[in-house]
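Bug: token stream looks shifted between consecutive jobs. Job 1:
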Amino acid sequence: MTGQTQRKSDSAAAGTKPGAPEGASQSTIPPRRMWLWFVILLLVNFWLGRLLMPGPEEPVTVPYTLFKEEVGKCNVTSIFSRADTITGRFKEPVTYPPAGEQGAAPKGRPPATGERAAKPQEAPKAVSSFATALPSFVDPGLEAFLIDHGVEIRAKPIQEKRSPLLMLLYNFGPALLIIGLYIWLFRRAARQGGSMAGGLMGIGKSQARRYDQEKDVKVTFDDVAGIDEAENELVEIVDFLKDPGKYTRLGGSPPKGVLLVGAPGTGKTLLAKAVAGEAGVPFFSMSAAEFVEMIVGVGAARVRDLFKQAREHAPSIIFIDELDAIGRARGRMAIGGASEQEQTLNQILTEMDGFSSREGIIVLSATNQPDVLDKALLRPGRFDRRVVVNLPDKTGREAILKVHTRRVPLASDASLEELAATTPGFSGADLRNLVNEAALLAARRERNEVHQKDFLDSLEKIVLGPERPLLLSRADKERIAYHEGGHAILGLLVPGADPVNRVSIVPRGQALGVTYQRPDSDRYNYPEAYLRAIIVGMLGGRAAEEIVYGTRTTGAENDIEQATGLARRMVTRWGMNERLGLVQLAPRENPYLGGPIGYGDAKPFSEATAEAIDAEVLKIIGESHEEATRLLSAHRRHLDALAEALMAAETLDEQDILNATGLPPAPALETRKLPAPGGGTKCT
């Protein structure tokens, strides 16, 4: 008996009713502060009701002559007279003032001297209740005139008949309805264990989309190519979802969460869908940015609802894209959104601790900024496993192209192997876009199949930009031809340089001409000689202009920018200099998005070191420019021949370049070392 009384007291103290469902953490009765807001809301709604829904219509003053005319038409039902004022009602509403009546002087005539400009009258409107004034002279026949035309002469003022209850509902009804709606939402939110904001119009409900394997297009591992390493890591997850007893019988437990890390477009979301498709389980997909709202607590409510849905449909997969939007390390976020983001992150941490792997729920997430994630997310028991989804290599790119060209009719000359070799650094999304652009281009050319030229032209459009129809003079075209020819000649002369695939003097994007070089194989480690060869090739355009014309133009701006950036990274990040040695002087870059990580605006070195860095960068650029000038001066006739061919054809492929210059492709670095700046052999 005592225990029962104690339970009732606890329930009353907490503000919950006996028998309320467990987990209802909030009271079903609004607190005192909420009632104060209800009273304020009642007063505001009463004022708005009086403003937007006025009471009975006020009588409109009309001329006495109009009153007499309407009496003569039997359009007046009743009147009330007091002193020299008559009020009454019309049977049918009368438009007053009449349409076209103006209060100003006649059109075309200015007001006469001494004549006051009449005030503009109100717009015409329908009048039911009217008032008028008796004239100063006596109208003895008015009473008989009114009686003859059936007008009721009243002894009391005319008022609308309205029920007191109707007037009460008219004034307070909207406010009472709104207050009732607030109370219903408050109690509904309390029963669901959520906040007031979570119950309002479903704002706290998860926005995750559920992919049904029967209704939606089923994605399997057959639709994923080029990322075999990541795919092999997830085969175990699929096997667990199909047969969980296989892993739990020996006491083991599969990972709760798997974090997919990779550059944009590498297929992280597609890989997650393929896991769900192979396992044949429900797949709930949601972006992390959809959790965060202006109202604090909404994100946490959506997290709870998402995991609740996943439990109801277990075994299932939850996929949270761009996890870094809410998973950033706590304490580093902006003040405005810190509270909401941290609450959402805390709720995710709680939910991942709150379920067991035996329930059959796997949380997959994707990000391209793993360095900013909170350490609590990455500890064992939450996101146990990290799967890196890298950019595909040549073999992977060819496999991806085969997947995306299943429904594309290919011509006999289309070579996916050659196309894969021409697209280093392309992600799966880039390759899909390339195939789509080629198909659209072939259709625009009225072809029934997609040819190799369609792929190459689409690749040129994607990488270099669309063509610009600029009207260039012959002198400008010739200068551009020599500039691009300088890049191409050095691509054939400098040992270890990437093969020149195409040269064009057709303006594309922001460039007036383009030299496209592609590596003969995927590179993952860059020797210093290879990097210096790239810088020499970049400065070939400026060197060619100086040799042929003896002047400089702005056309080398992008070349100088890229060469300077590469030389600075050689000095500050890779230790490729003798003066500063093996010291890291620049922050590491994000391998998936680019851009520095850490340091910020602060420099981790002194001003003297900064001067030394600038000196080493200038040294590398200067030596490379001297080497480019030396090589082009020695092969001036080949440069002239290539420029002449470019003037004639505007665009040259690799074989056309070799035929025009008569030069063989550049030798590999292994067969000959890069000549020392200035040429010749150094004597010791």
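Job 2, same session, no restart:
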Amino acid sequence: MTRFMSKTPNFDTKLKAMLVAEQIGERTCAISGEKWQFDEREMRWCRQFNTPVSRYSPLTRLKWLSAFRTSFEIFWNKHAFTGEPILTYVHPDIKTPIVSDQEWHNLDVGSMPEYQREVDLTRPMLDQFRDLVSVVPMGARREWKNIVNTVGVGMWDVEDCYIVFSTVGTKRAMYTYYCLEGSEDITQSVFVRTSQSCFGSTHIDRCHSCTVAVESRDCINCAFIFDCRNCEDCFGASNLRNKKYVFFNEQLTKEQYQERMKSIDLSCRSTYKEYYQRFIDLIGSAAFPENFNMNSGDSNGEYLTDCVRVTDSYYMNKCTDCAYNYGSGGAEGCYYLSSAYPATNSWMCAVLLDCSNVKYSAMCGKSRELEYCYNCHDSEYCFGSVGLRNKKFHIFNRPYSEEEYWKKVDELKCAMLDRGEYGEYFPLDLSPNGMQFSMTPILYDVEVDEMKKFNAPMYDPDRGAVLAPKKTVEEAPLNSADVPDCLKDVDPSLWVAKPFMDQKVNRRWTVVPKEFEFYRSHNLPFPEEHYTSRLRRQIQMMNLPLREVVNCAACHKSITVGKNKTFTARKVYCTDCYLKYLETK
């Protein structure tokens, strides 16, 4: 018996008949046209969560959900009540009212009649829901607690940070995505844990004073390293364990290494670009393991750490009995989720924080038994609601008695089922950041033509451009090619806090004074492009959640691995062969 059967009897009867009529077998995705298998596992989930069979393939559903997952975008928008400029992840062309996070935390929309709606069973539920989203204010940056002198999106316990995203427990970071767990002084880096004084790094853990470290752990004073563990004073290295004084995989003495390093000045862009390209070539010839999972032997996917029975998932930590998940920690019994910290027994959701028994919802926290809810917190038994806090038995933000609530939910879900609406996720015009500026195009390599198949609106990427901590008078953009090659020759009065244009993505950008000081103190070059271009390139050096079948480069057996957009001709070893390969290094 499902959780809702005794509460919504008419809906349950209708849905049960539908599921009885369903046949196991091949399906065609209604958006992508790809073939996919509706199998016993999917049928079990449909019965468990009391939901109809989806018209979409698993991959399409993950792309859709991740469109509600912020990436690393921030814009100038207007405050809903004052009209003053406000920094937010909501693009200025998206019709969602924006207020400061402090104002939102103090706003009780569930008690305000202007934000409540009657249920109209003759209208599509999602149309009524869209009307509500268009008027209920949303916090600008999803700031939760202990935000000190920081500008970013999706944060708590952060201090002295600038333009950071999905960042927790971090100090003095700039331009980061998923920088977590006590990291400090991190710039232009993604998927970082417990690291200090690192730049340009990708998926690192417990590293210190590293420049352009990729897929590495427990390394100190290294630069341009790939898949290294417990290494120190290495420059240009791949697949190394417990090494010192290595220069592009050549073992040197301490004296030889120090002498060679004297001639390298990475603060000159020409030098930095030379070694960066050598590093890319080095990775291209290096060995890739079957996956970068750790302690997750009974699971499959990529970047799984301490997981149990997790399948078809990506970047998961301490999760159990989950499938088709991205970016979750502590999730259990969840399917088709894009980011949960944590969640239990939830289905088809994006961005949950400490939730249970939630379906078809987005950006909800510390709540349970929600359906089709958006940005609701500390609430339970709500349907089709937006921006609620500490509420129970609400539909379209209007309160009901418990008996009235279940009667109305039964009627509404029956009407949705009859229209083929129940089981559909939120339309993409309700994504607060837009698919275009979400994790979908980054993780799943989705281009504009594919976004149009989702009916995803497209927005001007230069609208609301962030050029400095405060909105400044518009200036004609400078050309980054005119900036002196070496940082010591860069006059900050001419080039810092000035607008540049990244022509490839039609985005303006700038270098703020604290960023320039970081480059100066860490001997790094002046950048040449918008920070989102830099971060996107770094993420796409990682394996992606897209899967492909390859042959092990050693034993030639067939293995399923995550695709890599940057290193398409890489050598991949199965787990056993990779461990043997490391012994030869």
